Amino acid sequence: MNAQIKRIQEMEKLLNECRKVLDDCDKALIDFRSIQQKIEELEAYYTGEKWMKDYEDYEAGKIPKDLPCGVLSEDAVYDLLTQNRDLILEMLELAKERIR
């Protein structure tokens, strides 16, 4: 096989791989944007009085122990908020690198 054919085949493979990843990123970005309001709601709950009241009531046994309450763990919401912020910062950094 000559070098030109091989090069075209390699570039075609790269094109298809990159297209798939970018299509997946587009979908992920749509999903990411769509949850930002929900993340704001979680943050407002977590940093407000209602979370503390719910947490205290859970610790006092006033909330059924079989009720899923991951949101009342001390780290779950905080970790989610941190992950969201870190991802946004990473996207900004990537954008700055690519624009240069």
Overview of the structural elements:
With 100 residues, the chain is an all-alpha fold. The chain has one domain. It is built from 3 helices and no strands. The longest helix has 45 residues, at 3-47. It is elongated. 0% of the residues are buried. The mean pLDDT is 95.
Number of strands: 0
Cα(first) to Cα(last) distance is 38 Å
Averaged pLDDT, please? 95
Number of structurally distinct domains: 1
Tell me the helix content: over 70%
Order of helices and strands: HHH
Weakly predicted, low-confidence segments: none
Overall, the morphology is elongated
Oligomer: single chain
Percent of residues in beta strands: under 5%
**Radius of gyration, CA atoms, in whole angstroms:** 23 Å
The tally of helices reads 3
How many strands, which pairing sense, and closed or not: the largest β-sheet?
Answer: none
Structural class: mainly alpha
Please give a handful of descriptors for the protein shown.
mainly alpha
Q: Would you summarize the structure shown here?
A:
With 100 residues, the protein is an all-alpha fold. It has helices at residues 3-47, 49-59, 76-99.
Break the fold down into its secondary structure elements and pairings.
Elements: H1 3-47, H2 49-59, H3 76-99
